[in-house]
Amino acid sequence: MSTGEAPKRDDPTPPPEPEEENYQSLGLGLGLCLGTAFGAVFHNLAIGISVGLCLGLAIGTAIKKKDPPGPTPPSEGGAEG
Predict the structure, then answer these.
(1) Where residue 17 falls among pLDDT bands split at 50, 70, 90?
(2) What's the pLDDT score for residue 38?
(3) In the predicted structure, residue 25 carries a pLDDT above the cut 60
(4) Does 9 have pLDDT greater than 70?
(5) Is residue 56 within 8 Å of residue 34, measured between CB atoms?
(6) Cα–Cα distance measured from residue 58 to residue 26, given in angstroms and rounded to the nearest whole number
(7) Which stretches within 1-81 are classed as H helix?
């Protein structure tokens, strides 16, 4: 006999999001800070911010992140012991 309820299924976990492979956000932040500082020193804030953001983004995109050193994940199906 059926009770009319659907069988419960475990919700599948969403796939992990890929991690960023470069430093774009860090480059933008540092470029903004340095561009603002140089713009204030040279009395041209708009140009300083623009150039700082462009250079920060370009440098942050060019630098690739390295894989962190650490233990390797265990192989699947291997004997545990």
Answers:
(1) low
(2) 95
(3) yes
(4) no
(5) yes
(6) 11
(7) 24-41, 45-62
Whole-prediction pTM: 0.56
Side chain identity at 70, as an amino acid letter? Answer: G
Domain boundaries, the chain: 24-62
The answer to whether the beta carbons of residues 53 and 32 sit under 8 Å apart is yes
Strand partners, 12: none
4: left (phi over 0), alpha (psi -120 to 50) or beta: left
- Which tokens is 52 given? 């700082």
* Amino acid identity for residue 46 in this structure: A
On the question of pLDDT at 2 being above 70, the answer is no
Contacts of 47 (CB under 8 A, 6+ apart): 39
CA distance 71 to 2: 50
